[in-house]
Design goal:
- The chain has 404 residues and is an alpha/beta fold.
- The protein has three domains: 122 residues, Response regulator (Rossmann fold), CATH 3.40.50; 142 residues, Response regulator (Rossmann fold, 3-Layer(aba) Sandwich); 102 residues, Orthogonal Bundle (Arc Repressor Mutant, subunit A).
- 44% of the residues lie in helices and 13% in strands.
- It has a six-stranded mixed beta sheet with strand order 7-6-8-9-10-12, with helices on both faces.
- The radius of gyration is 24 Å and the shape is globular.
Length: 404
């Protein structure tokens, strides 16, 4: 009897499970949750035999995933034109995870890069800063998408943004870090201060902070820095540690596995199909722990809101009474210094606390409502849905998908 064969002409695995290759960069710790998301999908839905690159100090047979690889499906963080052509010829379904390869032969699952830019801008705007800068790489799609959205949000708030662009790949490999250091230092000296900088990724953000230290530029007092990916290594190897918008790796992996599963079962998905994964988390660290506000009354009000609002629904009238200003005068000063009203600052602080509780705890909605002193779980739900568009239980699913 002939052996069973898959649609790409390759003999099926002996145990009948699909053979799936996963290739993500091992040097970036922020991509590790991608694998966890894929594993969660497998546990909930179907069994796969996984091929992936591991550093086993040569104790295991090496796994190579290139244009010669054969199997039932692939999840790749970038691929070459030669690889794409080879996989197409063998009819191997592929899901791409890189914005740089969108529309280049396979459907894609990527983070919502414009939302990353908007979230970074919003965080820096809450610090009372009036000057902003985006640092990116014009040769990278993800960098352009993040930077464009960042600048648009800053402009919407009534401020301008200094755009700093350079391509590391243009520097020779030998001594590249020296060239990078010189270019970063030159740009840092030019920038007016205080200023908020959004870097395209954590590697650049960390590099900016290290250069500030060498130049005796105070972080975050003179330069507040925020990166992207929440890569624990890059965020912690600089002093102070780097604030960063988190890469939604687990959700990227889960959605990529879901899409690949349908493709392996014969579903047709357009090569230019792009599934953006929502961004829900910003990891605040010391690199943005500043408040660039000259008005002492407003500064004290902001500190009071950030101390009290996470667990108590402050009313603006309470803060006005502490300031000894008229209600209209207080609101006018606050809006001038912060770019938004005190009511909006209270909502922002409470929403951030609520998101953290939903993401990081399994507490029931009623318990969270009591902890934050909402009048009822229903009031909490209305507030959260009004501010985010999600019901709390749906938001939670992004971090704790229920088994199917």
């Amino acid at each position: 009897m002939p052996k069973p064969r898959n649609t790409n002409g390759k003999p099926a695995a002996r145990n009948g499970m699909p053979v799936v290759g996963i290739r993500v960069p091992s040097w970036a710790s922020f991509t590790r949750p991608i694998f966890r998301g894929i594993v969660e999908f497998i546990r909930n839905h179907e069994q796969w035999q996984i091929h992936t690159l591991v550093d086993s100090t040569n104790e295991m047979a090496p796994v190579v995933i290139d244009e010669k690889w054969r199997g039932d499906g692939l999840i790749l963080f970038r691929h070459s034109a030669e690889e794409a052509a080879a996989f197409k010829r063998r009819r191997i379904p592929v899901v791409n995870l890189s914005a740089e390869c969108c529309g280049r032969g396979f459907p894609s699952v990527i983070p919502d890069n414009p939302e990353i830019g908007r979230m970074a801008a919003q965080h820096l705007l809450t610090l009372g800063l009036k000057r902003f800068s985006y640092w990116g790489d014009p040769s990278r799609t993800y960098s352009r998408e993040r930077g464009d959205a960042f600048e648009q949000r800053i402009a919407k708030a009534g401020f301008s943004c200094t755009n700093v662009q350079f391509e590391p790949d243009r520097f020779p490999w030998e001594g590249r870090w020296v060239n990078m250091h010189e270019h970063i230092a030159t740009e840092l000296r030019r920038l007016p201060k205080p200023i908020g900088i959004f870097a395209k990724d954590d590697m650049l953000g960390s590099n900016i902070i290290r250069n500030c230290n060498a130049l005796d530029i105070l972080v975050p007092d003179e330069v507040a820095v925020i990166g992207t990916n929440a890569d624990e290594v890059f965020c912690q190897i600089c002093t102070p540690p780097l604030t960063s918008v988190a890469y939604p790796g687990k959700r990227v992996g889960y959605q990529a596995a879901t899409l690949l599963s349908t493709m392996m079962r014969g579903a047709r998905v357009a090569d230019d199909h792009v599934m953006p994964v929502p961004i829900h988390e910003l990891v605040a660290r010391e690199s943005t722990n500043t408040l660039a506000v000259d008005d002492p009354v407003v500064a004290e009000a902001v500190h009071y809101i950030r101390r009290q609002a996470p667990s108590y629904p402050i009313h603006v009238s309470e803060i006005v009474e502490r300031s000894r200003l008229s209600h209209s005068g207080f609101n006018k000063n606050f809006l001038r210094e912060m770019g938004h009203t005190p009511k909006e600052e209270i909502k922002r602080v409470r929403l951030a606390r609520l998101q953290a509780l939903l993401k990081n705890t399994g507490n029931k909605i009623g318990q969270v409502a009591r902890e934050m002193r909402f009048e009822s779980p229903e009031e909490l739900t209305r507030f959260f849905k009004r501010e985010t568009g999600f019901a709390p239980k749906d938001y939670r699913k992004h971090y704790h998908p229920a088994p199917h």
